[in-house]
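User: Structure tokens for both sequences below?

Assistant:
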Amino acid sequence: MMVQKIQRYFQEELDQEMGQFDAQFLLDFFSEEVGAYYYNQGLHDAQAVLEKQLENIADAIYEIEKPITLTR
């Protein structure tokens, strides 16, 4: 599916024919060269979401804590 999208993009935007082999080669190249960047960005985005949720949980726990009275 991605190879077909690359072929269609080259045809529609650049008015260039691209064969399946060339499109696959280009996809492999970009996957190797920039794939790690997007993968790592996804991890950082997921971490930010989890941190926000943990902050919300911590706030919720604080709200339901019972007061402690120390007497002697």
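Moving on to the next sequence.
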Amino acid sequence: MKAIVVTDQAAGTAGMRLVERPEPQAAINDVVVQVHASGFVGTELAWPSTWTDRLNRDRTPSIPGHELAGVVTALGYGTTGLSVGQRVFGLTDWTRDGTLAEYVAVEARNLAPLPGDVDFTVGASLPISGLTAWQGLFEHGRLQAGQIVLAHGAAGAVGSMVTQLAREVGAHVIGTGRAADRQKALDFGAQEFVDLENDALEDVGSVDLVFDLIGGDIGKRSARLIRAGGTLVSIVGPTEARPGYGLAIDFVVESDRGQLTEIVRRVRDGRLRTNIGSIAALDDAVASFNPTKRINGKTIIRVRP
């Protein structure tokens, strides 16, 4: 099968290569999925799990990519809940070969059924962005109607999901980003926008929840905006500054079939829009990972036409 592999962490995306690899086999509780579309996050090449397994052993050449939409082609021993020929989407294990390939082996519990009226490209754009937003807002942030959310990177793949889901439950959303991101953030539902390059972040006042996708100085300054009982939720590692009278939580997204089902249901009924920045074929994927201009949104690779 065709697959994209990485062998040299220092090379970054420039070190990606399209090669031939053996098709994966389904282990216990696995399924093999014929990948139709795959999502890719550029920071994956900085994740330790891309290069080593859980025992810290080198696992290169490894296949990146952890989001997929496709069709089940084989079941491992003991696998239940899915069937051969079923359309699925989901999030694969961090320390196993990923989805930038024609086939992938993945634990069945990490996948959810993909309705027939949802395109594979859309399905592949949902797992990391949708689950990160869902878990950060509702599991870790305990968001409630009427609260104020500061959503950093509101025009990006995760930030736009944060904005839409927060608005759906009745929160007031203040988006942030660069000046060029303003209209896109507002189009996805942000009610206010802060240009982090030219506006004073502190002028937003107190908020109930900060969803931090940036960290660094912005994370430190954001911590001071949390009102008593509020929460700073981060996906960029432990925060250097903590709210004086609130919580600071950093987390790694996990696959959850029930949450995936809720997310795709919202896509089908128009409550949630995807944010796809670029689409490329697998044969052209390596070039697409080294764009000449900034891409705001999810990168999707169409593995099958």
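User: Anything stand out in the second?

Assistant: The chain is about 20% helix and 30% strand.
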